[in-house]
Amino acid sequence: MSSQLIKGKEISASIQSELTPVIEGYLSSGRKINIAIIYFGNDPSAESYIKSKEKTFKKFGIAINLFNFPETTEKATVLKKIHELNTDPDCKGIMIEMPVPGQFDKLELFSEIYPSKDIDCLTPYNYGRLLLGYPGPVPATAGAVIEVIKRSGFELSGKNVTVVGRSNIVGKPLALLLLRENSTVTVCHTKTKNLPEKTKQADIVVVSAGKPKLLGEEYFRKESIVIDVGINFLEGKLCGDVDYDNVSEKVKAITPVPGGVGPVTSIFLIKNLTVLMGLSK
Ligand code: NAD
Questions:
Q1: Which one of 49, 229, 238 would you pick to mutate in the ligand 1 pocket, going by the greatest count of ligand atoms within 8 A of its CB?
Q2: Is this structure's pTM higher than 0.85?
């Protein structure tokens, strides 16, 4: 049996082709869409995430305004900027890139963003809606994982899904989205005992641990569908949390890294934007 390679770029392109007419329709009447990204210092991973977001937004003709604050910036300065952006009619989305310096209480900072401009689902209001099962923006990576699974033709309803990782931006919101899809969800973390038992019992395994090549073939069955969210550097090369070379031929389907979940994540921000603007559901 040869395994299915799940191609994130193709999935991303198909979502793009659905969203392009929606955004073009809005812009064609002379209206504007600006997106603001607030970030601190010069963290290389933050800068690389911002570059990839800029590239995606550019494809849709959407302008990105970057607000780079020194790490020592006082809280009042950043809050003032968020308030300005909240009331700017052309600004349709506000994101705050991690890492946020220690003098800020992240929750306090995120809470200042108007929920109607919260395209990264950072605010407690939108996170609460997700928890309660109401429509709205969702954390982009978690939303991307659902798209990757469904658009690859795999059923979620009634399936056992094991998620490795419980972070606020990936594992936890993904578990909520999977429940919405009627999956039976097991969430694993660093204190989980017998991880291979938990992953082997699942029809679908989503790995978001942030540990390069953590999971080898002993964690899977030949029927496993493996979604690798990890983005790590090992010996100068990009790799996932799954040992791809060891696993790829021994499971039913797998996402590569790079080229799996990553390309779908940035396009998902556009999806969130259209939801918040009332242009799509
Ligand atoms: P995080 O460090 O906040 O959380 C990692 C989670 O994995 C924790 O809940 C931890 O308990 C769990 N974990 C760690 N080691 C484990 C182990 N040995 N066994 C079981 N559980 C373990 O990370 P995050 O922000 O969720 O990101 C995870 C990975 O996903 C990173 O590699 C990150 O770069 C990547 N990521 C990718 C995208 C994308 O678009 N593909 C987006 C965001 C994050």
A1: 229
A2: yes
